[in-house]
Amino acid sequence: MSFDYDVFLGGSCGATTWRQELIPHLRRLGITFFNPQRDSWCEDMIKLEHDAKEKSRILLFVVDYRQRSLVTLIEIVYLAALRAPIIVVLPDERSFVAKPSEYYDRCKTVDFVRRVLHHHRVPTCVSVDEAVTLIEGILLKNKAVKESLKSLDWLAIWFRCCLTTAGSLFSLPLNLIFFFILHHVCSESFRMHFEYILRYRFPKIILLARVVKYAALLMCMFYNPIFFILLAFCSLLVAYVMVPVLKRLQDIALPAGNVQYAYHLYMNTTIPTNECLAYLYSRLKNLKVTFALADDFLPEQRLGAIASSLCVFYAVSCSTNSIYDLVKLGYAIGSGATVVANFSTDSIVHNTSRAVYNGGGGSGAAAAAEGTVATETESPLRSYCRAILYLKDMASSRDVSFFENDLNSAVDRILKCLQCCCQCSDMQYDCCSSYTSTKMIA
């Protein structure tokens, strides 16, 4: 597949300057890029950005803690669920600027995004410089050796990649031992928080560990070359054995056949729970449908619940301005489930004309219209309206139905989806008995 761009520069816009600082470096290396940030934003930009993403080799998304970045976070989890070639720069939650009423929701949202990235093994960087180093290494693999040697900048990148690859290869046995111990003793949630604490709170420990590792390898090479050669041989042997195994595990992790679902329906609602559930009960009483409520799961369990559900139903109330629920909806769309969503926008109809998107452009970025949280009181409204536009664009190529202020039609739609599932012979299985949290509508 041919690509028009090497890198798509997605992420926060508005008053951010990271693109202006990065673009000269990309031009010096001859790396082609698409910059979605514009002086004025319009709805047509969504289609332009969508096409640019499909034509880009790498999708870089940078989250700036000074912006709301709602659409950026939605796009990140959506692309992660699609297993797109995405690299994310995610800041420390403690650095976010937010109103006191929004701070908890933002931290909860970023924690969910971090779990999605960790679950899908998406490269997550602390800084833009770290992401650029990773991008350079990826693009170097697609460059011919002669072409790389013609440029001093690419020659330096090639030399740096050789050193890091050699260091990683020679320390492979020790890394594998640490990897197996960590994965057998610790839970996935603990591993994620452990990595987060090391990378964001104590980065000097990681740097010190790398310096010690490389110093030990150099000392071993000069003072005990026989042991060094033996270590190199063992590392090559381990790599020779592990590469086919890892490829096999990847094939197993991505089965092409039918998927067995634990639930027919996963429900997430910010509408008063009793009202919404009572209405659903009355409409679905004639169907035996297994379902799961988002509130029944811990944050680390919700990814698995969405992935193991055939249909996903969202009822989102604009009055909450909930970043968290919209981001989870973006992930559900990308996961491939049949999604039905209803947006309650009655409370903002009279303000729609104010939600004019001026300034900032850019993919999934909260542009200047989103602004810094402290400067524009209507920024949550604008973020919400823009998020719906991007979600609708994502839904255009997926099995997704969106409704606005029409809960009845949304329930009719999810009812038809569930009826089709229950009538399909492939869905007649009893896989829900092992889930104690499963509920039955009878």
From TrEMBL:
Gene3D superfamilies: 3.40.50.450. GO terms for cellular component: plasma membrane. This is Uncharacterized protein. The keyword Acetylation does not apply. It comes from the Eukaryota. It comes from Trichinella nativa. The chain crosses the membrane at residues 157-182, 225-246. The keyword Transmembrane applies. Pfam families: Nuc_deoxyri_tr2. PANTHER family: RAW, ISOFORM A.
